Amino acid sequence: MELIDSGRRRGRGATTNPDGRFEVLNRTHFDDGWDRDETPVPLKTDVQIEKSRTVITRNTSPDVPFERSINPYRGCEHGCIYCFARPSHGFMGLSAGLDFETRLFAKPDAARQLANELSKPGYRVKTIAIGTNTDPYQPIEKEWRIMRQILEVLSAANHPVTITTKSALVLRDLDLLQAMAEKRLVKVMMSVTTLDRKLARLMEPRAATPPRRLEVIRALSDAGIPVGISLAPVIPVLNDHEIERILDSGKAAGASEASYILLRLPLEVAPLFKDWLLEHYPERFRHVMSLIRSMRGGKDYDAEFVRRMKGSGPYAWQIARRFDMTAKRLGLMKRGIALRDDLFSPPNPGGTQLSLF
Q1: For 336, which DSSP code?
Q2: Which contacts (CB < 8 Å, 24+ apart) does range 307-312 have?
Q3: Of 40, 121, 181, 208, which is least packed with CB atoms within 10 Å of its CB?
Q4: Chain segment 32-70, per-residue pLDDT in tens
């Protein structure tokens, strides 16, 4: 794969934009020399509207701690190079590379659809997870406000929700989150992958800085909102040496629970991550990939349930032990508080149906 000009991808995570895996034809990019004297035009973010039949996604994976989720957006402007959701752009005929970060899809009808689905007679309450695929508070949320509208519906219906993000924009909705927290209907997991500003800028170019994320944990905790710290992903050689420091910092900021996931490299993510690693940390490439493969049965990735989250082998065991011992020492719970599901009151978007008699 050819690298895209660094001037064009400034502020982006991926270094390439390979064709989607479902495409019949594959393109090879090359420099013909015609535009070498021209200033590269940076890639801009393009947002299209996506209309879906349902907004609540059901999940049956045995190693995922939620059954239902909502994704307000497809693609993510944060540009995290390790994001396991990147291959989903292939279903749209787009690349898991730079397309995933720049050609986004928004669901402006999500709140209305959610109200309709919660109003169905057979609906049974289960905690809804948001931010498990792409970040609901990515930069375009400032304009589209879809996450805000979803929270308004969930708050009015007293429906439990968990939120995972690495954005300070979550503080915009402090009023809603605080009101829900008083009823034990919400908790937030702040993703903190590193305390190294340089690594964060290269690995997660448009996400909040590590110090800012810790400030968000403090602000949420001070507001009485249950908040945890998510170390996801753990990447050998790059950030695994920070496990203890990250958990210590999260606890000091007010986090009450913690979790981690080992780096996952499914489908197109593996070559994208390796291209990124060769550009930014070439001296560590062999060491990083060697340790990854030692935890993935000799491959770049093992998709087997449970093992895909934590890996296997001595090095994976060592990471798990370090994390567990530190979390135990700090009093960081793995699951945190249980959210209430007995306060649910279905919304009625179509108005009240009067009785015949």
Answers
A1: -
A2: 308/63, 308/264, 309/63, 309/261, 309/262, 309/264, 310/261, 310/262, 311/262
A3: 121
A4: 566 555 677 889 999 999 998 899 999 889 888 899 999
Q: Are 202 and 238 in contact (CB under 8 A)?
A: no
**Cβ contacts of residue 262 below 8 Å, gap of 6+?**
233, 234, 295, 309, 310, 311, 316, 319
**Amino acid at residue number 6:** S
Structure tokens, 199 = 């690594």
Q: pLDDT at residue 1 above 70?
A: no
**Is the peptide bond prior to 347 cis by the omega test (within 30 degrees of 0)?**
no
**Cα(91)–Cα(114) distance, integer angstroms:** 23
| Domains in the chain: boundaries | 46-330
pLDDT at 79 over 90: yes
Q: How would CATH label the architecture of 46-330?
A: Alpha-Beta Barrel (3.20)
Give phi and psi for 182, each to the nearest 5: -60, -25
| Token pair of 162 as six digits | 């968990």
CA distances (Å), 211 to each of 193, 229, 250, 258, 338, in order? Answer: 12, 13, 10, 17, 28
Taking phi over 0 as left and psi of -120 to 50 as alpha, with beta for the rest, 311 belongs to left
* Per-residue pLDDT tens over the stretch 217-250: 999 999 999 999 999 999 999 999 999 999 999 9
